[in-house]
Amino acid sequence: MTDADVHDELWVVLFGGDAPSMARARAHVDGCEACQKGEQMFGRLWGALSGHLSAAPPSEARSKLLDRVRKDDRLAHFAPELAELFDLTEAQAKQLIRDARDPSKWIEGPAPGVELLPVNTGTRATGMDRISVLVKLEPGATLPQHTHAGTERVLVIQGGYRDSGGREVWRGEVHRMEVGSTHSFTAVGNEPCICASLAGVEPED
């Protein structure tokens, strides 16, 4: 079983988080067959390790294991969705995910704690009337208020955010904003929020 087989909610259940995150993660795992199998597998692993240790594995060791598993390919689950959104091949979507894990690929965004990664889309999504980008917000960072000149689709691939209208959008959810809509949004939870955005732009006269 690989990180691509399970979802980030499993790691929250296994390694902890704040109370709201734990509640959402527990509900997801209880309804996800792949994550249930992963939870059982890790339970057997820790049980086997405990038999050879004088004490239970320390939280620091578990955290290091979590980091290693996540860094392997924590966003790979969303390759098909990114390919569809940006009109990419599977190979191109996987390369985009690798780029997203490379800090040097990101550029400074419009506010503190906000970074952008421009996306070269396929021909169906390409055009002067579209903006395609990954957006990363550190916990608590806010993307300033803005008005949508065209329809925008935002797919959250890590963490979550709360927009100025009070709506929360979490990993795996799509937020659609219509022409003329206005909002800002703030990353919530204890990890950076990463979103994939494809936004329309009204052509100038």
What report would you give on this structure?
The protein has 205 residues and is of the alpha+beta class. It is built from 6 helices and 10 strands, in the order H-H-H-H-H-H-E-E-E-E-E-E-E-E-E-E. The chain has helices at residues 8-15, 19-30, 33-50, 59-73, 79-86, 90-100, and strands spanning 107-108, 114-118, 130-137, 142-147, 152-158, 160-163, 168-170, 174-177, 182-188, 193-200. The chain has a 6-stranded antiparallel β-sheet with strand order 1-2-3-10-5-8, with helices on one face. A 4-stranded antiparallel β-sheet has the order 4-9-6-7, with no helix packed on it. Helix 1 (8-15) crosses helix 2 (19-30), helix 1 runs parallel beside helix 3 and helix 5 crosses helix 6 (90-100). The chain is globular. The termini are far apart. 27% of the residues are buried. Mean pLDDT is 79; it is low at 52-56.
Question: Main attributes?
Answer:
205 residues; alpha+beta; 35% helix; 26% strand
Give the secondary structure arrangement, pairings included.
Blueprint: H1 8-15, H2 19-30, H3 33-50, H4 59-73, H5 79-86, H6 90-100, E1 107-108, E2 114-118, E3 130-137, E4 142-147, E5 152-158, E6 160-163, E7 168-170, E8 174-177, E9 182-188, E10 193-200
Antiparallel strand pairs: 1-2, 2-3, 3-10, 4-9, 5-8, 5-10, 6-7, 6-9
Helix pairs in contact: 1-2, 1-3, 5-6
The helical percent reads 25-40%
Q: Measure the end-to-end span.
A: 54 Å
User: What order do the strands of the largest sheet run in, or round the barrel if closed?
Assistant: 1-2-3-10-5-8
**Biggest sheet features:** 6 strands, antiparallel
pLDDT < 50 runs, ≥5 residues:
52-56
How much strand? Answer: 25-35%
In sequence order, what are the helices and strands, one letter per element?
A: HHHHHHEEEEEEEEEE
Mean pLDDT metric: 79
Number of helices: 6
What's the number of extended β-strand segments? 10
Q: How does the overall form come out from the CA principal axes?
A: globular
SS content category: alpha+beta
The Rg value, from CA coordinates, equals 19 Å
